[in-house]
Write a structure and sequence with these properties.
The complex is a heterodimer of chains A (about 425) and B (about 55). Chain A has 13 helices and 15 strands. Chain A is about 35% helix and about 20% strand. With about 425 residues, chain A is of the alpha+beta class. In chain A, a hairpin with a 4-residue loop joins β4 (about 110-120) and β5 (about 125-130). Chain A has a 4-stranded antiparallel sheet. In chain A, strands 9-8-7-11 form a 4-stranded antiparallel sheet. Chain A has a domain at about 250-415: v583 fold. The model of chain A has no long low-confidence stretch (mean pLDDT about 95). The model of chain B has no long low-confidence stretch (mean pLDDT about 85). Chain B has helices spanning about 5-10, 20-30, 45-55, and strands spanning about 15-20, 35. Chain B is elongated. Chain B has one domain (about 5-55). By secondary structure, chain B is an alpha+beta fold. In chain B, about 45% of the residues lie in helices and about 15% in strands. Chain B has a two-stranded parallel sheet. Chain B starts with a helix and ends with a helix. Chain B contains 3 helices and 2 strands, in the order αβαβα. Classes of the chains: A alpha+beta (about 425), B alpha+beta (about 55). The interface between A and B is medium-sized, with 16 and 9 residues.
Chain lengths: ~425, ~55
């Protein structure tokens, strides 16, 4: 009989093989109600882990209320809150619906979703369209008539326009874009401008060919060329689609999800089913975009976008994106050191995401909870800084708490030590 | 009695730096040859985690 160490090592190799063999392709853009599993007209999704309404941070609360108003489920914030209190609105984590959302992750029935299919494993994952740049968006917990109008334009105009273009080109290979973007200075979390440009290049001619009218074409192209982080959401959905097939790999200690709800940070582990292991979310260190903002204004770490680190991007490959160091006053050497440090907690490397500054060695991938606990090395996440009430106020980096990895390891031992 | 110490001060320094890079950097800035050893004090984990890691890693 194989000893437990060998079983875990072999399970981790298999889990990582499943992830690396994934082929995420952006195949469609559809309203959430049409494509997201378990979605209903009165469901609002948010960034994980699960949290009760009364415990939510400011951006989540404001974002949920905004989505209820935008969907027309209520006429006023007070009515919206009453619906929540009465249980007339279901509030659930994106991750429980094969979905990932940046920032608050607020997703409702009419939200236009990027549909990414992992063609190697036959599963799909979803993320809402990016609202574009700006400090006041629903994804940061803001809501007013201007934001509502923009969301409606995305749902009624941009979404169908992108759908036609993506279908016309037969889908967009997201992994191929990530691979190129990493070699063009993106770490694909805080910086995805290269990925964005590559995506636009893929669909540009199809947009010209399929847009319904000249105004739609100009408005759509204007939006796509101004929204530097647009394709981050496609990358996030791709990451989720690559990780999901590895979930449930028995005996594996590989992390399959990391997410933050502005109060708690949570992880899921391949061999431990759907259980979230949580600990208080840390505060993000970084650059505040206005002089009047500082650490006291910030909410703790927030968003599902750390699915990028879970797939070995973002903070795990800072060496590929030295410009991101500007948020934290770092250096090229620090970025390289950070990437090498992240390799010490990973199962392997991804040769399809090569890092030029490290002699094209592959991105570290497959976080192993054993190594995190053994070395007490907390994974590093590049991310935005959200105001504790609402709004984007900065960007930087944050370490995960270690306590959730330790909890997961103890749970793993309880489940497998006697099996 | 003091000869070995005097020799240390008058001879070229040969340094092995164990751990914190700051010391090695300071010497290197003064053109002193330094061999760097990457080392950290062993971490102290709670006993339950140590036992689990012995079984799993």
């Amino acid at each position: 009989m194989r000893d437990l160490k060998t079983q875990v090592d072999q399970a981790n190799e298999e889990a990582l093989r499943i992830v690396l063999s994934g082929r995420p392709v952006l195949v469609d853009v559809r309203p959430a109600i049409d494509v997201v599993p378990g979605m209903s007209r009165n469901t609002i999704l948010h960034s994980a882990p699960p949290i009760e309404w009364r415990d939510m941070c400011g951006p989540h609360r404001n974002g949920v209320l905004g989505a209820i108003l935008w969907e027309g489920l209520a006429d006023t914030p007070a009515d919206a809150e009453a619906m929540i209190e009465n249980g007339d609105v279901l509030i659930e984590p994106c991750h429980h619906h094969d979905t990932v959302g940046a920032g608050t992750g607020i997703t409702s029935a009419s939200t236009p979703m990027l549909v990414v299919e992992n063609t190697a494993h036959g599963n799909r994952a979803f993320s809402c369209l990016s609202e574009g740049g700006g400090l006041e968006l629903l994804k940061w917990g803001c809501y007013d008539q201007k934001i509502a109008d923009h969301l409606s334009w995305q749902a009624e105009v941009l979404g169908p326009t992108l759908k036609s273009a993506i279908e016309a080109v037969g889908g967009v290979d997201v992994k191929n874009i990530i691979s190129k973007a990493v070699q063009m200075g993106d770490e694909c979390h805080n910086r995805s401008i290269a990925a964005n440009s590559l995506f636009f290049r893929e669909i540009a001619v199809a947009l010209l060919d399929t847009a319904s009218d000249r105004k739609t074409l100009i408005d759509s192209v204007t939006f796509l060329t101004e929204a530097d982080q647009f394709f981050l959401h496609g990358i996030m959905a791709a990451a989720k689609s690559m990780l999901n097939p590895a979930a449930g790999t028995e005996f594996s200690t590989m992390v399959t999800a990391m997410a933050r709800n502005g109060v708690e940070f949570g992880i899921r582990v391949a061999g431990l089913g759907d259980t979230w292991f949580t600990a208080p979310a840390n505060h993000v260190e970084g650059l505040f975009f206005r002089s009047e903002w500082g650490p006291d204004d910030a909410a703790p770490d927030l968003g599902d976008s750390s699915i990028t680190e879970t797939i070995g991007l973002g903070g795990f490959i800072q060496a590929a994106a030295p410009s991101v160091q500007s948020y934290v006053g770092g250096s090229m050497q620090q970025a390289i050191d950070n990437t090498r440090e992240m390799a010490t907690v990973c199962i392997g490397a991804n040769p399809e995401f090569p890092i030029p500054a490290l002699d094209f060695s592959g991105a570290p991938v497959g976080i192993d909870i054993r190594k995190v606990v053994k070395t007490q090395t907390a994974p590093l996440i590049d991310t935005a800084i959200t105001h504790r009430d609402k709004g984007l106020i900065g960007a930087g980096q944050v370490r995960t708490p270690l306590a959730c990895f330790e909890q997961a390891l103890k749970a793993f031992a309880r489940q497998y030590a006697t099996s | 009695m003091n000869e070995p110490k005097q020799a240390l001060l008058s001879a070229d320094l040969k340094v092995i730096n164990i751990g914190l890079e700051l010391f090695a950097d300071s010497l290197a800035a003064q053109a002193v040859d330094v061999v760097r050893v990457d080392w950290k004090p062993p971490l102290e984990l709670e006993p339950e985690l140590e036992r689990i890691l012995d079984d799993l890693l």
